[in-house]
Structure formats: C-alpha cells, structure tokens
Amino acid sequence: MVEVNTPVRDKPKRWDLPFSMDFTNEAERREMSFSDLNDLFAKKPFSEMDASRFPDSLPLASIVANDTRIRLYREGDAIVRQGDYGNSAFLILDGDCRAIIEGLDPAQLGRQADHSKSLLKSVKGLFTNALAPEVRDSRLYPQHRDKAVFDPSGTVFVQDVPNILELSPESYSEARHNIIPEGSLFGELAALGRVQRSVTVVAAGPGTTRLLEIRWQGLRDLMKYDNGLRDHVNELFRQNGLKGAFQMSPLIQAIDLDEEQWDQLLAEAEFETFGSYDWHGTYQQLRKRDEDLLTQEPVVQEEGQYPNGLLIIRAGFARMSRRHGAGEYTFGYLGIGDVHGLQELMHNVSTDDNSPIQTTLRAAGYTDIVRVPTRTFEQVIYPAMMKTWPDGNFPEKFLGETMERRKTAMSTRRASWRGDRRKREFSGAPMMEFLAENRYINGTATMLIDLDRCTRCDDCVRACASGHNNNPRFIRHGKIHDHHMIANACMHCADPVCMIGCPTGAIHRSEGGGEVVINDVTCIGCGTCANSCPYENIRLVNVRDQSQDDALMVDPVKGKAIVKATKCDLCVDHHGGPACVRACPHDALTRADMDDLLDLSEWLNR
Amino acid sequence: MSIAALVLVLLMLTPYVIGYRIAFSDVVVTSGWLLFAVVVFLSSYNLRKKLTYPPLLKSSTWLQMHIYLGIAAMVIFLFHTSGKVPTGHLDIALYALFTLMVASGLFGFYLTRTIPTTLSSRGNEVIFERIPLFRRQIKDRVEQIILQSIEQSASSILAEFYESYLMYFLSGPRNVLLHLVRSERTSYRLRHELRESDRYLDEQDKVLAAELDDLIKLKDDLDFHYARQGLLKLWLFFHIPMTLVLLIFLVAHIVLIYAFTYGGS
Ligand code: HEM
How far is B206 from chain A (nearest CA, A)? Predict the structure, then answer.
C-alpha cells in the first residue's frame, strides 16, 4: 500500500541521463545526434561489432547513444591526468594524442606542487589567521580564458582543463612521450578497475582532437557482448596490470617466484569484478531506502563451497561474514592486497582433505579480485610458500583474516580493571558490522572519537581551525557505535570515489603521503567531489577576498558567488601530523587506518 | 602509574635532600622558587593549547605532566608554608588562591574523568552550542501538538498540562542541579503526571500524549547534556582566570619578600 503522502516517482532508470548530457557545465551538454551515431558506426571498433549479439534490453545502438559522448580538445589540453581516478575510456576519432610518461610538473596538472609549509610559516599563520571565514588571496586564482569555446559545428570544447602547452611549453616538449594514433582506445584499465591513471594524455592535434568518451558502464556492456573488445581489453590488462595487482599482495611479495612460475601465474590467473563500480551512488540510494545492505552485496565466495582458488583483492573492499542463526554476522573485511581462502587451500593441499570455505566473502560496494585457480595455487604458490618458510611457520600477517585468528587476537587482549563497561569487546562483530555497513572500512585516516573520554572541549576543532586560516575542516559530529564516534572528517579513503570525475584534477592524492587533498586554486566549485563522497565529508563554501575587505567573491559574468570545495587535508601543509590528534587533552581522538584491524582493536579496547 | 609514583616520591623527598645540604631558611627559598617554576609551567599549558605550532608534544602528554606536577605543587606548597596559614594579608590571599587553584584542578580532573561516560550513555550526542536550537525545536513541536489537540478534541486536558507544567519546563534549561547528581525525579514526575491523565483522553489525544511523552524525555536528555557539558566548561572558567590572578599574586609576593628581606638589610 502506498501511503498518502509518499511522493510517487518513476523508478530511476539507467539511461535517464545520457552521458552526453552529464556535464556540470550546461554549455557542454548536447545529445548524440543521428549523424554522430552513423559516423561512429562507420568506424572501428563499432563497425566490426555484431549488433545481433546484444540483448534486446541492451541494444548496441542504445549503449553507444547513452553511454558515450563526443569531446573536443585543443592541442595541449590534458585529457586524462596521471594519478586521476577515471570512470571512462577514450577512443580517438580525429587527431592524435600524446601519452606523457614523465617530466611533467604536478602544478601543470592542476595539482598543488609543494605542500609543506616551513615551521615558521605555520607559527606565523597562528597570528595572521583571517577573522572572517573562508578568506582567500584572489591573486592566486588564474583569470579564466573564454568560458565556452565553440566549434563551428556547434560542439563545445572541454573547458577548465589545464592546457599543458599554455602552462609551460618547454617542459612539455622536454617530457618523455609516446604518440597514441587516431583510432586507438586508451584509459580503459583505469575506467574498469579502481586504479589511478598511469599516464597523462594530452591532445596533440593538429588542430582539434575529437574523442569519444565511453563511461565504464557502457564499456563493460560492450565488452560483455563483443568478444573482440573483451579479448583486447583483457589482454591489455594481462600485459600491463596483472603483475602489478599480484605485487600489491604482501603474500606474493614475500614468496620467491622464478620467471617460469610468474609466467604460469600470469597466464592462468583470472580476474573478476563484483558489485557496482559507482558503489557510492548505489550505496546512498540503498541507505535512503533503508535496505539491508549485507544481502544486497554480491557474494564472491560462499561459506560451505569448495574453494575454487585463492582470491586476491585488487581494488575495493570485501566483507567477511559467517552464518549465524537466521542471518549472517560480519567479523571482518578485506582490502587491497588481502587474500581469501588461503587457509582452506593450504589445509586441503597438505592433508588431501576437501575442506570447504569457512567464511562468506561479499563485495562491500565494489571489489575487483584476481583468482589464482586451485590447481595453479597447488603448483606455483604453495611450493613457493614452502620454499620460503620450510618449517611451515607462515607469518600470520600473510595468512589473511580468519575467524579463529580474530578470536584469539581478541581473547589475549588484557582484561581491564576499569569496570564492566570497559571489559566488553569493542572491536567484535557489532563494531565490524557498523564499520562495514557504513563503509567506514574505506578510511585510511578515519577520525574516531572515544566519547567516554571526550570532554567535548572542542580543542580539536580549534586546533584544526588554527592551521587552516581559522576554518575548521571537520565537524565534531557523526555516527556513533557504542561510545565511539566516527566524526565527519575526510577519511582519506583507500578508494577515493570523490576523485572520480573532477574536471580539473584539483582533488588529488598528495605526492608524499597519499592524502587526498584539494588544490584550492584549480578547484572550480562544481561539487562533483562533494556529491560523490558517501560520508558527506566535503563541504562547498563561498569564498571571500582578502584584498576586498573579506567581501564574498562573485563571478562577474554570472553574478554568482564563487564556491570552493573544502575538507580535512590531514594537515599536510604543516609539520607534526594532524593537529586534531595532537590537540586532544584526553587522548580521546585518533585517525585510524581501517586496514589495520589489530591497531584499531587495540585502540578501541584500550 | 609506577612512573607517576616515582616522580611523586622523588618530589616529596627533594626538600629533605636539599634540607640536609643547606640551611633551613634556604629550604623555604628553594622550595619557593621551585614552586614558582612549577606554577609557571602549569600555567603555560594554556599557551600550549593556543600554539598549535610548532608541534610541542601532544596535548594529552601535557595534561599528564600537568596533573602530576599539579599534585607535586601541592606537596611543595606544604613544605614551603610548613603547613601553616600565614599572617600577612597578601600571604593569606595567596594561600587561599593556591589552595583554591589546586582544589579546582582536582575537582576538574574528577569531572573530566567521570562526566564523559555519563554523556555517552544518555540521550543523543549534541554539540553544546546547538542545545538552545534543539530546545526551541522541541518547544515548537510541543506547541503544535497542543494546538492540534485543542482543535481536534473537546477536552483541554493536554492544554492544561502544557500550561501548568510544560511551558515552564520547555522554555529553558531546567533541573540543572538535579542532572548534576543524576536525578531524574522531575522528568519522572512530569511523565507520570501525563500518563495519569491518559485515561481521560480520547483516542486522538492519546496519540498526541505519547508523542509528548517522547518529547519530554528528549528535552530532559537535552537538559542533562546541558548541565553536564556546561559544568565541564564552567570549571575551566574558574581554573584559567584564577591562574592569571595567582601568577600576579605570586610575582607580588616574590617582589615583596626580596624587597623586605634582602633589600632592607
Ligand atoms: C597552581 C596550580 C595550577 C595551575 C596554575 C593550573 C593551570 C592550568 C591551566 C592554565 C590550564 C589550561 C586550561 C586551558 O587553557 O584550557 C589548566 C588545565 C587543566 N588543569 Fe590545571 N593548573 C593547576 C593545577 C592543577 C591540578 C592540581 C590539577 C589536577 C590534578 C589540574 C588539572 C587540570 C586539568 C584537568 C585541566 C584541563 C584539561 C582540559 O580538559 O583541557 N590543574 N590548568
């Protein structure tokens, strides 16, 4: 029954918003025309695709019409930047592109080149902080070139991208680069898996370079129904990405593999993706509808099944659960490089047993895995492990999370004398459930506050403000589990979904520590990052001009206030680490890496 | 803990050790200067809090030192005064100030270790500055309910209940002292009263009364947070300004001692 005041709306559908209309900038929106499509189907690879292999619900023409868009770049415009997280691949229609492998200055890509302030500057800042909120030095902001640049055909050039040629012609010519010729596809690996773009690609002209941008949903479907494209992309991954994925696993790093073993591993490994690449969007919707998340998460490997291989997490997160009564309870999660099924496989090899998998693994949002088939494990990895640790004493950290290991780790923790409340286990299943359910497992510097210690003095907030020109970059408020609060501060996620789709590369990982930071100068305030952050930890603010008596800055053409995205930067500019942690008089606040469960439970159970 | 005990014992022994080596009057002078140094260090915690940079140890480390040295200061003070109340006006004032200072420190220490747990186990977590806003929202909702009750039912029981109890209860922070001793007497009475009148209400009003009951609980929890978070802030309002007064009195005390004892001779 529909309640009287429930707003009735159509269920959102996949192609409600075609990719060609999905621009924050209105001028760039333009639906794919009939002639555009005809033009495309005359070119490779579309001309070679067999439309009859596509299901009626997903016709080839609709995929192309809805999941691609044509973009124009002038010579020197950056198309993708090294270090970006992408969600689309590019097909070169007209012109050439250049992949710049090295030699570019981060500032040329919209990044902030150097973060660290001198100690003296940090101290001076305390005394020269602005009185009004969000004051900026407008002289640092570049004056924009013409807003919308129209081609005679009526299409609009991509704007707001840094033009590397204009920024510094010398270093562009000095940079090491390869030409990517017309007709090539690039950026597909970063679009399909959550990995950073490995090179910067700029339009190389001559004149206008025309590209077809294909969003990952479309690319995936094209690959699913067109074997040619699938084989092509998979082969590229096997050549370029697979070894890197293996090397992210501490286990594989620790064992010694000779060239032949590597070859066998690379030839026989399989890779798969579970869940939704844009999990943050789906997650936000599911939460709004109050659905049970666990049951919505796709199963990667199920408790009780025969282990079909060693799983290595390549990207994203996975939740480990075990059947309990009528439901399942979460006891841990896995992140990049972690393995699943190792104990069972080892047990089976060494005893000739056929033990099933002990825990269910589900994609918490989105998980990319590499599977080493059981036979390959037995022939390559297990012997290499035995060679590395001949006495069979495998270091625990390589063995992966298991129920038993967690239990022993917990029970050896000292019982506390501080009363009953303290004696309880705070990193047990309910806490794991809370962290997985809210996707806090994504954080590498999650702000945790122990409310049993916190005197609500706000020293943390004040210290944060003092290091950021009087603007606190977090809110001492957030979801609470038992007496631990996850405050609304950027968690510097392992999977930084906020970085997807930033048009200028302003939001990026810092060179040194990998913190996710925003370059205030190149941020155009489009809000893409703030809308993507599932934790609502990025705020858009109106900025003020210090040279104009701190008046609000306004765009003279549109008359609208100038907006910038802001968030916690983990005090990368300053020495001494996050000021919030140092400022807490009662040791109630920490920045926790959710990947380090032992450290985390140590803190939770102090 | 063991380090703390060691530090304390050493500090307690210091005057003796010094005392054996130097004459008695020197013990007073030495302990006096030592006390002054310790008090200056204790006071500098305020500066450390303001100076986020340069990174000078974590604030929690400072607080630990603060507490140990604060207690040590008390011991040195006893040696310095030989446990006797002095006679001069300034000295009496100084004696009183120091005692109050240490007492407020100990009291605050007790509060900071006991109040947080009570806050996290009752009501919603709320930022102190936003309490008035939430209070107003609750009051607005209650008023809406009462208006609705007046419109929809013939009886004025809820309206009367509002007038005689709720209006006062909702219009500001209430039962601050009771909340400090964790008594729930008033809210219990209020809700009891409301429940008692339940049997005179019609079905529609009963629904409203149930929501009122929830709102009373919400407001009471808000008062609880107001009282207890407020106290956590209030004690520092004594502790910090008193520090400044103490420092002024201390300097005056030292100047006078030197002016009269040494300057005079
Ligand atoms: C002559 C003695 C003392 C002086 C001059 C002194 C001075 C100060 C100062 C300046 C602060 C910094 C407050 C701020 O800026 O927020 C402070 C905080 C504090 N003091 Fe003392 N203090 C003294 C003794 C004590 C003693 C004996 C104790 C307890 C054993 C104590 C416990 C504390 C605590 C718990 C804080 C607050 C920490 C916080 O939550 O921010 N103090 N004191």
Answer: 22
